[in-house]
Amino acid sequence: MHVAVAGNIGSGKTTLTSMLSKHYGWEAHFEDADDNPYMNDFYEDMQRWSFNLQIYFLNSRFSKIQEIRTTGKSVIQDRTIYEDAYIFAPNLHAMNLMIKRDFTTYSNLFNLCNSLIQAPDLLIYLRASVPTLVNQIQKRGREYEAAIRLDYLTRLNERYEAWISTYAAGKLLIIDVDHNNFPENKEDLGKIITKIDAEINGLF
Fold this sequence. Notes:
Rossmann fold, alpha/beta, globular
């Protein structure tokens, strides 16, 4: 069983991944943003470090997917390989923060990796408005996220919605974070678990 949690910066992916891992006994695989050697540099100079950052993430996520499929364990993954390819990298290119040559190289490498992997059995998408994202980003207080601009989050949200509207690689569950406070409300978390149970039962 491979479940993946997708969503914009600050949508609650890591928190939900932790909660579901504990509830179901799934092994959790977290995004290594805090260990990414390019992250601080990227937020200080996006144009210079965008390609390096995306290549690092692509390599990391591809390696994790291979590991997930070979171990045979039930795993829940914080963020997917698709989000960089369909949201972050195209957004950087559109904002002139990644030159066309680098974007083409990245896209070609992603297409190669994507041809060698299996989609998650269930994708959970955390949908959140920009005010909700900003509030949650401020709560966790990561220094490198302090400079994230509202227009950047808005652009990412638009690309997330475009991607999710066409996602057909596997089962999809959408959670409206604006109206579901799962980190602090057990009843809200229970609603998510009930929906996941229904999706999982349909996988077998």
